[in-house]
């Protein structure tokens, strides 16, 4: 079972004995299932995007050796880091934001085009061009005081001068890895790079299961307190949770959420605690989960129900305790 926990989903099952140092790519060729049907599941993993990644896949019908699959996935993730990372000072994104004259790669252009269409679709509630605004607020928490209103107004006037792909890049990364795996013939997979993409079945022959963390303040350990478990369908799908229960300001007794509404310049104030969205791709699930956290409970319910290609699970403060809402195709169980 993998864990969704508000934009920092991690499932780390490292089959490696000994010390792990950053920069060392793990190779996990763990045989998970071998049967007369020809199923042969392995897990590969390593470091990516400031954390770890795990990919489980069925080698049935696949002629590419596991070591080559590992190397190829690492190469894809390295290319993403060199293109889209805001933490890599030499990435295309960082040099673009610094005002350098850079050649935009096909990957950069692809994500920029997708993000632009999402901004238009959401009326600006999802906006990768609001990077100056996110910088002013200092999430994750580079300063301990609230920004001056004049700085917020100025940052909003600079919309589009810098980009921040944090709300979509991890989902997009999952999709690129999944595209590669499908290209070599993989039909059963689960890709976990902070966000999740899955299709087909797990080593036990059943559908993949996803654990959804309970969105309560102080729940810092993925999987420690679960809101529920979702069993995915077998078709390709991205599934992502976004929430405000781990990142927020507390100032003069008031809680300021991690999610900034690009349309107002200020943190959202509503009772939606977390939004889990299932979509045809992990990039869309990533972006739409963020969008739901901007528009709140009622808007999210209406949005999800209006889209036949989406399912969702919302957890909110009902006034007398935590409550949840699920779309008709999103079943959540306690085990």
Second CATH tier, the architecture of the domain at 2-86 and 169-231:
Roll
Average pLDDT number: 85
Order of helices and strands: EEEEHHHHHHEEEEEEEEEEHEE
Total of DSSP H or I helical runs spanning 4+ residues: 7
Strand order of the largest sheet: 2-3-4-5-6-9-14-15-16
- Describe the main β-sheet briefly: 9 strands, antiparallel
Distance between the termini: 10 Å
Morphology: globular
Number of strands: 16
* CATH H-level homologous superfamily name of the domain at 2-86 and 169-231: ApbE-like domains
Structural class: alpha+beta
User: How much helix, percentage-wise, in residues?
Assistant: 25-40%
Q: Into which percentage range does the β-strand content fall?
A: 15-25%
CATH-defined fold name of the domain at 2-86 and 169-231: T-fold
Spans of at least 5 consecutive residues whose pLDDT stays below 50 are: 8-31
Taking all Cα atoms into account, the compactness measure Rg is 20 Å
Assigned CATH class of the domain at 2-86 and 169-231: Alpha Beta
